[in-house]
Design brief:
This protein is mainly beta and 112 residues long. Helices cover 5% and strands 63% of the residues. A hairpin with a 2-residue loop joins strand 2 and strand 3. The longest helix is centred in the last third of the chain and has 6 residues. The radius of gyration is 15 Å and the shape is globular. The N and C termini lie far apart (36 Å).
Length: 112
C-alpha cells in the first residue's frame, strides 16, 4: 500500500459514481509547479493530475467540492498505465481518500 498526500485544485465539481453495487464520490484535481528544463534551462510548468475517490461520509462535503476549490487529500494511492489520445503511454494516479481538507474557495483561487 502506498500512502499519498496531495494538494491541488478541483478541475470540475465532484460527482457521484456507481460501481460494484455501491456508490462513491469522485473528482479530478491538478497541482502545478515550476521547474527548469534540463536541456534548455527554460522554466516549464509541470502539472500532475489525480483522480480522488471517497467511499464514505462524503455527503456533507459534496456542496463544497466545487471546481477551483483547493483541497488537501491523504490516502492510498494506486497507479495505472494507459494510452493517451496521441498514443503515448501515460500514468494515471488515483487516491482512495482517507482524509480531505478544504483549503480555499473557488473565488479565492480565481483571484490569486
Amino acid at each position: 500500500m502506498f500512502q499519498a498526500m496531495f494538494l491541488g485544485n478541483l478541475a470540475d465539481n465532484a460527482h457521484i459514481e456507481k460501481g460494484n453495487n455501491s456508490q462513491f464520490c469522485s473528482f479530478r484535481a491538478a497541482s502545478s509547479r515550476k521547474s527548469k528544463d534540463g536541456r534548455t534551462g527554460q522554466d516549464v510548468i509541470i502539472t500532475t493530475w489525480v483522480t480522488v475517490n471517497i467511499n464514505s461520509n462524503y455527503e456533507n462535503m459534496m456542496p463544497y467540492l466545487l471546481k477551483g476549490v483547493k483541497v488537501f487529500v491523504m490516502g492510498n494511492m494506486t497507479t495505472r498505465i494507459y494510452q493517451a489520445r496521441a498514443g503515448v503511454a501515460q500514468v494515471g494516479i488515483t487516491i482512495q481518500a482517507a482524509k480531505i481538507e478544504l483549503c480555499g474557495s473557488p473565488s479565492a483561487h480565481l483571484q490569486q
